[in-house]
Amino acid sequence: MRGAFAVLGVALLMGCISGCTSRTAEPAPDATPDHGGSGRSVPAKTSETAETTGATVTSPAPSAEDEQPYEHPPVPPAPSFYCRKGAFCDDFEGAFPIALWTERFAVGNASTSLASISATSGAHSLEVTSNDATSAGYLRFAGKTVGTDWAGVAQFAFRASSLPVTSLAGPAIAVIREGGDPVSIGVVLDEDGLVLVQREGQAVVARSVLAPARADHWFRVTIGFEASAPRAGGVRFGRVETTVDDGDLLSHDLRVPAASGGLEFFAGVTRGDTSPSTAQVDDVSFFVF
User: Fold this and answer.
1) Is 187 buried (19+), middle (13-18) or exposed (0-12) by CB count in 10 A?
2) Do β-strands 88-90 and 277-288 pair in parallel, antiparallel, or remain unpaired?
3) Cβ within 8 Å of residue 160, ≥6 positions away
4) 275 touches 164 (CB < 8 A)
5) Residue range 7-53, pLDDT digits in tens
6) Which of 20, 65, 141, 166 is most buried per CB count within 10 Å?
7) What b-and-e string marks burial along 49-74, b requiring 16 or more CB atoms within 10 Å of the CB?
8) Rounded Cα gap, residues 137 and 269, in angstroms
9) From CA 139, how far away is CA 97, in angstroms rounded?
10) Displacement of CA 153 from its chain's centroid (Å)
11) CA 64 to chain CA centroid, nearest Å
């Protein structure tokens, strides 16, 4: 079970140009003596006069390199989407609705469609529009039934066009337990940031902030699981490890009994904001060991 998740310049230099007549300038290296009796050295070539000293100053001719226009460095290419062997994957570059998914779900006047924007080098993503907190729109994938001990990893990109007024719930993994409330682990965008939320039924059991809140930003999220049956008197059901945008690896206690049931993945908006919102999901990958 261990190792199931592997992811994982200012100095300011000022020249004395004006008001510095108290110091005598040293001869320039290419200067020639003034045989007129002044005792000063005069530069061999002159082009500009410094008004403050009356001395003549040489300016070097611009080089061919200096005259070249500035070229901006090339923009790095967008990353590509990779699907590991045996994983359920969708980069939303195919026809829609997607035949890979078990169900296309929309409630409360929410809608799902393909958008002409991608988290990687593709051209499309799944887009969901929702109206209020009672609306949701997503694609559901019903995976295998898991036992008391299992491990897996989910990856996806999630983006909201604007920051929510209250909160916007995004993709989630759920275990539909026999004879018990379903449990889920997913991401929510709210005033705290991008948050990992663990639920049992509708009750929030644990929250962990993963990244600051940002609008118009693709959050690239990886969630790894090691789930197990609860030990006697314990409330820890395993471990969850996360990364966002290839950042630090964060470890969290799994606080919900995510075992012994049907495993499902939801891509989209699983709960809308209190105001109309638009969000995108891309590059979904889900693998169970």
Assistant:
1) buried
2) antiparallel
3) 168, 189, 215, 216, 277, 278, 279
4) yes
5) 333 333 333 333 443 444 444 444 444 444 444 444 444 444 444 45
6) 141
7) eeeeeebeeeeeeeeeeeeeeeeeee
8) 5
9) 9
10) 18
11) 42
Tokens standing for residue 203:
């009750």
Phi-psi region of 64 (alpha: psi -120 to 50; beta: other; left: phi over 0): alpha
CA 253, chain centre distance (Å): 23
CA–CA separation, 223 and 188 (whole Å) = 14
Contact 102, 141 (CB under 8 A): yes
Q: What are the structural domain ranges in the chain?
A: 88-288
CA distance 150 to 225: 8
Which H/E stretch holds residue 102? none
pLDDT beyond 70 at 144 = yes
Per the CB < 8 A criterion, the answer to whether 158 and 219 are in contact is: yes
